[in-house]
Amino acid sequence: MSVHLFKPDVEGQYPDYLRDESRRRGQADWISFAASEEDIRKVLLSRHAITTQGARTGITGGAVPDGGHILNLSRMTQVTGLRLDSARNELFMTVQPGLSLLELRKLLQTCEFDSTGWTQESLSALNQLKRFPCYFFPPDPTETSASIGGMVACNASGACTFRYGATRTYIEAMRVMLADGSVISLRRGRERATGQAFLLHTTDGRERSGRLPDYTMPAVKNAAGFFVSKDMDLIDLFIGSEGTLGVISEIEIRLIRTPECRWGVMAFFPSEATAVEFVKTVRALPPGERPAAVEYFDCHALDLLRRQKQENPGGLDIPALPLEYHTAIYLEYHGGEDQVSAAVAELPEKMTAAGGTSEASWIADSDRELERFKEFRHAVPEQVNRVIDERRKKEPELTKLGTDMAVLNSELSSVMDLYRNALKSTGLEYVIFGHIGNNHVHVNILPRTLREYQQGKELYLQWARQVIQWGGTVSAEHGIGKFKVALLREMLGDQVLGKMRELKRVFDPDAILNKGNLFA
Q1: Mean pLDDT over residues 489-502, rounded?
Q2: Phi, psi (5° rounding) for residue 327?
């Protein structure tokens, strides 16, 4: 047992656990490192306010404690079983919530599982996997150290969401421990709402019933608030609930066949307008010809990488970026070799038609080259964090300000103009990058002073109100956490938030779980 039911000096012994990648710092009285479901139950029954943590890679402050007890699940990393569905050509893996995405990928490559205690069905599936190691987990957040439990908690996505969808699509079953220590076991397709009403049973026979809030979710990539709809599959209620309804103790994930071929293309354009036109062209292709990922990097993001290469020539393994490369679009193609090569061969004509040139592009047709492109993608937010960390030495209260909004296809040009015009008028330093295929880019403002920080916050609120009017969302993938509570209120209103609170009380009547997440 790894759980600590005593009161350690959290600030002195475990300072890193008072923050996450948001750079926000909290405070707590207790900390526990659970290794089993029984450990989780003991912490819950202590009746302290609980902040659940995984790998702490989130950037909305969701894992930052606001007093009480930290329940850290990062030591719950076991794979407890496998299940092969030959008819669907899919593999199902049961994992504890602390397993990281990076470790999951390594296990699928090496097949070196600890199968102690596995059933015969799981061992048989493992033997099949060793003969044909060709399955993968499609969700791909930029930070691969993210835990699977954390990905479920915020319905994480990433670049390849354009083709494969977010984490929700790949969750087949879960065990969720409620605040009173009871457990709800959920399996996709088994527990469903009747209209807005729902009834769930715990494993010890108790009932949890209520009504779902009656609101319409935006028709865009969305991670803002509870997922609700009439007659819904109730497993989806807990996915993306940010730990406010219960603690995830076990997850069965769905793995699909690895594509035969993966290529990447980094295309550079002379302006933002030409790049956006190219995105619209690519996005309008028939499903079989579309890429798996469509990513965006503005001129300031490219300048940030140029500075990095200049200051540390060996630190970033990418070619030089000529100054005429103003804006970049990254495409990733998955499929059969003939299909992928044919799709890539048609890109030069599309680049030229949008106002670019095929000469200003890089192609990756091997896993090694593809990793260099992924390093390029990862380096931008890393450099943003580095800049902010340096500025915090003078202004400790500074954090980066990063949007996570998404709009409908019809509003892509409008939202890009909205961001750019406002930023130009203020003179704030910024970079824009992200998942433009889903009309979902991250505007990262890099404030130098607290005055600029406040300016940036005011801009975000203005943008959020406009995005909401356009039918978009204030959070497409990072969730709400503690940072974006005011934006969720703008999006849903007090009446809907009140209904969400009522729903939370069904599962957590004393409101001890993840205080400050979603709700003020």
Answers
A1: 97
A2: -140, 145
* Cβ atoms of residues 217 and 114 within 8 Å: no
* Structure-token pair, residue 33: 């490192």
Measure the CA–CA gap between 69 and 512, rounded to whole angstroms: 10
Please compute Rg for the chain using Cα positions. Answer: 23
Q: CB neighbours (10 Å) of residue 346? A: 10
Token pair for 183: 């457990």
Q: Are 193 and 208 in contact (CB under 8 A)?
A: no
**312 CB-side CA count, 13 A:** 8
**Backbone region of residue 409 per phi and psi (left: phi > 0; alpha: psi in -120 to 50; beta: other values):** alpha
Which of left, alpha, beta for 233 (phi over 0: left; psi -120 to 50: alpha)? beta
Structure tokens at 219: 């028709």
Task: Show the domains of the chain with their CATH numbers.
Answer: 10-72 (3.30.43.10), 86-257 (3.30.465.10), 261-469 (3.40.462.10)
DSSP state of 217: P
What's at 470, amino acid-wise? W
Q: Which of these, 105, 176, 102, 108, lies nearest to 146 by C-alpha position?
A: 102
Q: Which one has a higher pLDDT value, 48 or 250? A: 250
Indicate whether 1 pLDDT > 80: no
Which CA distances in Å does 56 have to 171, 226, 411? 21, 21, 33
Quick check: helix, strand or coil at residue 364?
Answer: strand
Nearest-5° Cα angle at 322, 319 to 327: 95
Task: Please state the pTM of the whole predicted model.
Answer: 0.94
Q: How far apart are CA 231 and CA 222, in angstroms?
A: 19
What does the pLDDT read at residue 312? Answer: 77
DSSP code of residue 216 = P
Q: How does pLDDT run across 25-82, given as a tens digit for each residue?
A: 899 999 999 999 999 999 999 889 999 999 999 999 999 999 999 999 999 999 999 9
Distances, alpha carbon 405 to alpha carbons 222, 281, 320, 335, 397, in Å? 9, 22, 31, 30, 24
| CA gap 425, 170 in Å, rounded | 43
CA separation for the pair 453, 445 (Å, rounded)? 8
Q: What is the tens place of the pLDDT at every residue in 91-110?
A: 999 999 999 999 999 999 99
For 243, other C-beta atoms within 10 Å of its C-beta total: 28
Count other C-beta atoms under 10 Å from residue 300's C-beta. 17
- In SS3 terms, 316-343 reads as CCCCCCCCCCCEEEEEEEEECHHHHHHH
- Nearest C-alpha neighbor of 227 from the set 475, 515, 487: 475
pLDDT at residue 13 tops 50: yes
Contact 140, 102 (CB under 8 A): no
Which among 196, 132, 138 has a CA at the least distance from the CA of 163? 138
